[in-house]
Amino acid sequence: MKKALVVGHGLAGSIITHTLSQNGIETACIDSDVPNSASKVGTGLINPFIGPKLNIPNNLECCLIANNAFFDPWNKLSDIQLYFKEPLFRLFKSNIQKKRWHELSNLTSSKKYTHSFLPSEYLEKEGILCIHGGGHTHAMRLDIPRFLKLSKEVISNQGKLENREFCEEDIKDFDIIVFAEGYNVINNPWFNHLHFAPAQGEIMEFTGSPTPSCSNGTWFIRSLRESFLAGSTWKHEDFESGPSKTGEIQICENLKYLDLKKFRKIGHTSGIRSCTIDRNPIIGEHPTHKNLLIFNGFGSRGTTTINYCAKLLLELITQNKPIPGHLNINRFASYKNEINRYRTYFH
Question: Given CB 3.0 to 4.6 Å as the disulfide criterion, which of 38, 116, 202, 294 pairs with 233?
């Protein structure tokens, strides 16, 4: 039996730890409680419509199938639902988005998510100001803090979880090492050359009048402890600075569809997403140290994609099945070659 070590117990690390151990690989996990982890402040929201064009994420159906398969047993293990469906109002900023919603409502691939159109008069009764109306859809939601807590208990009870940093001696003790350490990959000597683009995200917490979960690009959603979460921001510079007044102002400006006088701010926090320059995760083997693997770069869509990607990494390890090109660590070799050719041509 192969022995694996997963470095990191955020959302990516916990899921890949259980995926490997459930498929015949003896797997241990270490975590050093890296500050500013994105998983510690993640809302666990899977929105079927992203961006101003209301695009459906790539491979959404495959991701949802993978999530259901993974989280169904965890829902049974927990005393409350960890992964569940949640109504969401998608608010339109323009008539173009409104028209796009009606187009999506007639497409076979998307109409399962476009439940109904919500006129501005209806939204106003819900305390939402949006002259272009909105669309009623449903999101999926993961209670990330509770899942991570339960995951930690399960791995600890198996004697497979340690609170410590990775050391090079670990390479001798395990057949494979999977680095799932989030933005801390920038300190990893084997993988910090890759094209990561960490981004800080700030979120705020409010209490106030009952309000449906909604989003116009900036979301205002019910938290899992009888309050509301709002966000988020993106900042690629000085991303370890913590929550800021600038971030608070930006979030509040983007929440003009609500009367914030009816709400009271009770929290403001931040985390650092491990993003990449092409917005796709990075998965696969180190080019020369084949026993070192990376499982990282999920950005703000980790709840959507991690289980799907965990299945791909499992197939690489157990079947030597290649990772798809747009996710494969090797895709950056071609980027490097293009840059080198460019430099040679102009010098």
Answer: 202
> Do 164 and 243 reside in the same domain of the chain?
no
Residue 68, pLDDT score: 98
The pLDDT value recorded for residue 346 is 37
Sign of the CA dihedral 217, 141, 125, 251?
A: negative
User: Would you say residue 337 has pLDDT above 90?
Assistant: no
Q: How far apart are CA 303 and CA 44, in angstroms?
A: 6
**Chain centre to alpha carbon of residue 23:** 24
Question: Rounded to an integer, what distance in angstroms lies between the CA atom of residue 266 and that of residue 247?
Answer: 15
Report the candidate in 314, 14, 9 with the shortest Cα–Cα distance to residue 176: 314
Under the banding of pLDDT at 50, 70 and 90, the label for residue 347 is: very low
- Name the residue among 50, 39, 109 with its Cα closest to residue 272: 39
Question: Helix (H, G, I), strand (E, B), or coil: what is residue 295?
Answer: strand
Strand order in the sheet with 26-31: 161-163, 26-31, 3-7, 176-179, 292-296, 282-285
- Domain with residue 109: its CATH number is 3.30.9.10
Is residue 91 domain-shared with residue 172, that is, in the same domain? no
User: Does the residue 169 lie in any domain?
Assistant: yes
Confidence of residue 160 (pLDDT cuts 50, 70, 90): very high
Q: How many other CB atoms are there within 10 angstroms of residue 311's CB atom?
A: 18
pLDDT tens-place string over residues 164-187: 999 999 999 999 999 999 999 999
**Which candidate, 43, 69, 14, 219, places its Cα nearest to that of 143?**
43
Confidence of residue 237 (pLDDT cuts 50, 70, 90): confident
pTM for the full model? 0.93
Residue 308 lies in a domain: yes
Which structural domain range is residue 312 located in? 3-43+145-195+276-346
| pLDDT above 70: residue 343 | no
Residue pair 201/38 in contact by the 8 Å Cβ criterion? yes
